[in-house]
Write a structure and sequence with these properties.
By secondary structure, this protein is α/β, with parallel strands linked by helices. The chain folds into two domains: 85 residues, no CATH class; 323 residues, TIM Barrel (Alpha-Beta Barrel), CATH 3.20.20.140. Helices cover 31% and strands 18% of the residues. The chain contains 13 helices and 17 strands. The strands form three sheets. The protein has an eight-stranded parallel sheet. The chain has a five-stranded antiparallel sheet with strand order 1-16-15-14-5, with helices on one face. The protein has a four-stranded antiparallel sheet with strand order 4-3-2-17, with no helix packed on it. Helix 7 links the parallel strand 11 and strand 12. This is Metallo-dependent hydrolase. Pfam families: Amidohydro_1. GO terms for molecular function: hydrolase activity, acting on carbon-nitrogen (but not peptide) bonds, in cyclic amidines. Keywords: Hydrolase.
C-alpha cells in the first residue's frame, strides 16, 4: 500500500551542501515547487539539523523480476551455477509461474523499499513476450497508477526475448506492437544481443527506434553485454540508425538510454573519443547507464577460465574525461541475474567509490548525482541542465537525512556532507522523503526540524 503523504508549506532548519548555517525551504502547496530557500533565523540551531538533498531516482530497474528469490513459489529456481545462461533459463521458467497477484505483491515490495530509501522516480521494465503475454505490463500499469503520488513510475514495455529470430520472434514482436502503443507505456525497451544473428540484432534496433519515433516514446536498449573483443560493438549501429532516422535533440524531446554496454570497457581512448564525437556532432540525446551489481556478477568469462575479468562502464571517467552523459542504476534485486544487493540507490553510489576508485568528496558528490538528479534527467523527467542541488523553482522532491540512533544503544553518529552520505549510507529509518512537497515520514523525526 502506498504511504500517506502530508502536504507541506515549509521545511525549517535544514543543512544544505556547501552552505553554512541552516536554511528554510518554502514550498507551494498547489504546485509542489520550491518557491524560496532562505536562511533560518536561529543561527545556533544547526547541531541536529538534517541534511537536505535531491531525492533519488532508479534510471533502470526491473519491476516484474524483483524479489523472485524471496517468494516461496520459486525456491526451485535459486542459482546453481550462477551463470548468465542459467539466469536466462531460470528466469524463463519463473516467468511461466507469474500471476497478476504475484507480480503486484513483488512489485509493491520494490516500490515500498525504494520510496523508503528516498526514490521518487523510476524507469521500470516489464516484460512482454509469448510466455507472459501482457500480464507483466498490466500489473505494471496498475502499480504505476496506484503509486503515482509517491513515485513517478516511467513504464518500459520490454522485449527480453528475440523479436526477429527463433520460433517465437514473430509472436513476441506482435505483442510488443500492441504494448508500445498503450498510453501508459513511456519507453520501448529491447535486448538486441539475444537475437540469433547480427542481422536480426540490427533489425531489432531499427524496429525499436522506428516505433519509438512513431509513438513518441523514449527508447532503451540492453546493449553489448559481453567482454568479447571479437564481437562487434552494436553501439555504433545504434548511433548510425539514430542519425539516419533523424533522432536529435532538435527533433524530439525523447531520450535514448543504452544499458550495460560492458563491451565498451574494452574500448581504447580513440574509440571513446570517436563515440563522444558521434553523439555530440549529431546532437543525439543519448545517455548510458552502468549497472555494476549485475555487470560485475554476470559480465565475466566462463568459470573454467583462469583469466576472469569483470566489466562495468567507467561512468565517472565517461563524464569527466569524455563529456558523455552517464549514470548508474540498480537493474535487478533478488533474482538470478543479481542475487545480491538491495533496492537502495545509495548502496550503489557507495559501491561506486570502490569500483571507480572515487574517494574524494568531489567524486562522491558526482556519484550522488548519478543516482539522483543526473539519473532523473537521463530518463527525461527533468532537463539535463537542471540544478544538481536544491534550488528555487525545482520540484520539491527532497531527501532529508537525520542523525538518529539506529543501533539501539542510544548513540547516533553524524555523516558530514554529501560525501559522508555516499561513503557510509545511513539507514532508511534516518531518512524523510518529500515528494512534490508532500512528506512521507520515517517515524524518527529530529525535533529541531519543523515541517509545516
Amino acid at each position: 500500500m502506498p504511504p500517506t503523504l502530508t502536504p507541506l508549506s515549509t521545511i525549517q532548519n535544514v543543512r544544505l551542501p556547501g552552505k553554512d548555517a541552516t536554511w528554510d525551504i518554502t514550498i507551494s502547496e498547489s504546485s509542489g515547487i520550491i518557491t524560496s530557500i532562505t536562511p533560518h533565523q536561529n543561527p545556533n540551531s544547526d547541531k541536529h539539523a538534517p541534511l537536505a538533498l535531491p531525492a533519488l531516482t532508479h534510471p533502470h530497474i526491473h519491476l516484474d523480476k524483483a524479489f523472485i528469490h524471496n517468494s516461496p513459489e520459486y525456491t526451485q529456481l535459486l542459482p546453481a551455477t550462477g551463470s548468465f545462461a542459467e539466469a536466462l533459463s531460470f528466469t524463463t521458467e519463473a516467468k511461466q509461474l507469474f500471476t497478476r497477484n504475484d507480480l503486484l505483491r513483488r512489485g509493491e515490495w520494490l516500490l515500498a523499499g525504494s520510496v523508503a530509501a528516498g526514490v521518487t522516480a523510476m524507469r521500470a521494465f516489464v516484460e512482454v513476450d509469448h510466455t507472459v503475454n501482457l500480464t507483466c505490463l498490466e500489473a505494471g500499469i496498475a502499480l504505476k497508477e496506484e503509486w503515482k503520488e509517491a513515485c513517478a513510475v516511467q513504464l518500459v514495455s520490454f522485449a527480453q526475448d528475440p523479436i526477429f529470430s527463433t520460433e517465437h520472434g514473430e509472436e513476441n514482436r506482435r505483442l510488443m506492437e500492441d504494448a508500445v502503443r498503450r498510453p501508459q507505456v513511456d519507453v520501448i525497451g529491447t535486448t538486441p544481443y539475444v537475437e540469433m544473428t547480427m542481422e536480426a540484432a540490427k533489425r531489432n534496433i531499427t524496429w525499436a527506434i522506428e516505433r519509438a519515433l512513431e509513438c513518441n516514446k523514449h527508447v532503451d536498449f540492453h546493449l553489448d553485454y559481453n567482454l568479447d573483443a571479437g564481437k562487434e560493438a552494436l553501439v555504433w549501429f545504434v548511433l548510425s540508425a539514430l542519425t539516419e532516422k533523424g533522432w536529435t535533440v532538435h527533433s524530439t524531446d525523447k531520450r535514448v538510454m543504452l544499458g550495460h554496454c560492458t563491451r565498451l570497457t574494452l574500448f581504447r581512448d580513440e574509440e571513446w573519443e570517436l563515440l563522444a564525437r558521434e553523439i555530440r556532432d549529431n546532437n543525439l540525446p543519448v545517455s548510458f547507464v552502468g549497472l555494476p551489481t549485475s555487470d560485475m556478477y554476470m559480465a565475466a568469462p566462463s568459470s573454467k577460465s583462469h583469466d576472469r575479468p569483470r566489466g562495468t562502464l567507467q561512468v565517472l571517467e565517461m563524464i569527466n574525461k569524455h563529456g558523455l552523459d552517464a549514470v548508474i542504476g540498480i537493474n535487478n534485486v533478488g533474482n538470478a541475474f543479481t542475487p545480491w544487493g538491495s533496492e537502495d540507490p545509495l548502496s550503489l553510489a557507495c559501491l561506486g567509490v570502490g569500483i571507480y576508485q572515487a574517494g574524494t568528496t568531489k567524486t562522491a558528490e558526482l556519484l550522488y548525482e548519478c543516482v539522483s538528479t543526473r539519473a532523473r534527467a537521463a530518463i527525461g523527467l527533468s532537463p539535463l541542465e537542471a540544478s544538481r542541488t536544491l534550488s528555487q523553482g525545482d520540484r520539491a522532491d527532497i531527501l532529508l537525512f537525520h542523525d538518529v540512533d539506529d543501533t539501539g544503544c542510544n548513540i547516533s553518529r553524524p555523516r558530514h556532507g554529501v560525501a559522508g552520505i555516499v561513503w557510509d549510507p545511513p539507514a532508511k529509518i534516518s531518512r524523510d522523503v518529500v515528494v512534490a512537497g508532500r512528506l512521507k515520514t520515517s517515524g524518527s523525526l529530529c525535533p529541531r526540524t519543523a515541517y509545516r
